[in-house]
Design goal:
heterodimer, A: 108 residues, mainly beta, 6-stranded mixed sheet, 5-stranded antiparallel sheet, 11 strands, B: 116 residues, 7-stranded mixed sheet, 4-stranded antiparallel sheet
């Protein structure tokens, strides 16, 4: 079993749609959690940290369920510029473990 | 504001050649990391350095060596390149690693390495 698993992609959605990405992790001792965004052939960039209480940043909402070892990312009102690969990332003992990523394509 | 700088950006090697990938950060971060990214595999940690003077193996260290030259610089060396090491290599840094770390990482823009 992979340490961090994400929904298989790609997700193809129209502009304005709401899309949700799911992620599970296997190590219950994981300490912190992030969503990164990676554009084609570019470096990953931090999108947002994920807190136990859930957190929101504009159109993006991240949730963490430690009991189920589950992380989610919700994007509302999708924009063309949201097209990218979204990486679920888990911190285990100071090392970041990356999921394979879920590709999102937002169409006009 | 450079952040994390990697050199070179592109490189083609022949099997058996050696080379060193350079990485430098100007954010005064303690921890630095080397990853490789292959299609369908996500990013995999090769080596990391939690602080100046320390290095540790990651998930896929075989065939690589690293040097934490000083707080700013962390290099990755391929002693005898193999086609299986064809990949995109990313260097990253963060303010603090180790147990209890909760700091995101900042990435360089990658080195695309092809080994023939």
């Amino acid at each position: 079993r992979k340490e961090v698993e994400q929904d298989p992609g790609p997700f193809n959605v129209p502009e304005g749609a709401t899309v949700a990405f799911n992620c599970t992790y296997s190590n219950s001792a994981s300490q912190s959690f992030f969503w990164y965004r990676q554009d084609c052939r570019k470096e990953p960039k931090l999108l947002m940290s994920v807190y136990s209480s859930g957190n929101e940043d504009g159109r993006f909402t991240a949730q963490l369920n430690r009991a189920s070892q589950y992380i989610s990312l919700l994007i509302r009102d999708s924009k063309l510029s949201d097209s990218a690969t979204y990486l679920c990332v888990v911190n285990q003992g100071g090392k970041l473990i990356f999921g394979q990523g879920t590709e999102l394509s937002v169409k006009p | 504001n450079a952040g994390v700088t990697q050199t070179p950006k592109f490189q083609v090697l022949k099997t058996g050649q050696s080379m060193t990938l350079q990485c430098a950060q100007d954010m005064n971060h303690n921890s630095m990391y080397w990853y490789r990214q292959d299609p369908g595999m996500g990013l995999r940690l090769i080596y990391y350095s939690a602080s100046e003077g320390t290095t540790d193996k990651g998930e896929v260290p075989n065939g690589y060596n690293v040097s934490r030259l000083n707080k700013r610089e962390f290099s990755l060396r391929l002693e005898s390149a193999a086609p299986s090491q064809t990949s995109v290599y990313f260097c990253a840094s963060s303010d603090r690693g180790g147990q209890g770390a909760n700091q995101p990482q900042h990435f360089g823009d990658g080195t695309r390495l092809s080994i023939l």
